[in-house]
Write a structure and sequence with these properties.
Elements (H helix, E strand, L loop, with lengths): L2 H53 L3 H11 L4 H30 L3 H11 L2 H6 L2 H6 L3 H22 L8 H24 L9 H21 L1 H13 L2 H17 L1 H20 L4 H25 L1 H9 L7 H26 L3 H51 L11 H16 L5 H18 L5 H11 L1
Helix pairs in contact: 1-3, 1-4, 1-7, 1-10, 1-11, 2-9, 3-4, 7-8, 10-11, 10-16, 11-15, 12-15, 13-15, 13-17, 13-18, 14-15, 15-16, 17-18
Length: 467
Amino acid sequence: MKRPLKNLGSLLVSDAGSRVIGFLITAYLARVLAPSAFGVLNIGLAVLGHLAILGSPGMQIVETRNVAAKNSGLLERTGGVIALRFLFALLLFALTWIVTGMAISSSSVRDVVRLYAASLIPYALLLDWYFQGKEDFVRLGVSRVLTYVVFGTVVLLLVRSANDLALAPVAFLLGNLFAALFLGIAYVRNVGRPTLTWNPALWRAILRENVPVGLALFLAQIVSNFPPLVVGYFLEERDVGMYSASLKLVFLLLIIDRLFGALFIPVITRYFSGLAEEVPFLLTVTLKVLLILLIPVTLCGIALSRSAVMLVFGEGYLEAAPLLQIMMVFVLLTVLNTLFVSTLIGSGRERLYSRAMMVGTGVLAVAVVVLTALFNTVGAAVALLVGEISTLVLMIRGARGVAVLPSIRVLVRPIVACAAMALTLWLLRSADQMIACVIALLVYGAFIVASASLSKEEFQYLRERFV
């Protein structure tokens, strides 16, 4: 196996493994804590998500690139990054402790936010960016899985009811500590002890490189971390639990998006470099395949949302089912968005990408506040679609400047098949939804085959490029 393919396999296996383990832990916590306490837990995670970006602004990406590009001066640079991140972690943890004491009246929310903020310390010491830059995806993968194995083990041993709520962030802290220790030992054995000194000049240089990317990352994570905070502000902790439960299921499905992005970005980058004239055909065939595969996933997800919520989280979370139905469209939009994001990045148009992200995220933030205030959790779910549609439109506009995009005619046949599948599901709405989905998939497949939505030549073309 070629090294890039081996690296990709290691990364995807570890990423999928850690996500699945994390999802199972989440499902367990949702069941034993009940919606209100689960909502408190997700408020703490949302705050930590914002703090983690502030504590390491852009370094996960920029320093990974620096490690990959340089062979000299890395020991001092690594020490500078660790020292700066550790300093930021201490300052943010102290600030969180002070602000939560003044701004949060609920003792349970205050304690959970503070305990989650303690994970900033192992985050600062975590050397995953170094090993990613060195393409040591085996150690990187082990560290990710180790985080969730330790986290899950402690949760299963200690968290049995809502009374044990505070132990969940403690378990999360322990998982991150073990991962940081594992990579730290590996670094010392292979490289040596990093030089940790007071070096403001080096820190300023690091920040100058990292902060612009950190801003873009801060905006990007608003999708997952900002809405729960808004829901918690306007509504109740129980509503945060319902919203977060549906979002966890969506994020599990978005493994599809990560896999597609990991495969497609290198391919389209090579095409822009040496086969630019074939980029339009590549985009056309890829868009057709994405639509053919994602339409049934979206429609079956909508039809089976109630069953999925019941299976994973239990009857107490049934109010999350309508939110999941709305968010299933977000899965489709996100993967389509990745197609055009990859086009911009592959052509070297990062500025267009960053500008579109900033505008789209701004639309999302405003929509979440306004729609949650007006329509509660349903409004928050719809806001995700508003933000993603805005970003998708901007990405398409940007991509038009670098490549000839697929014609609208590409969408006609998959949309007709989608309409047939949706009509079948509607007609069978009173039947068992699993059986209804099977029948609807057969109808959909028949329409796809009859309309020759994907020719043999196009299938062979994709097989040669991606497999």
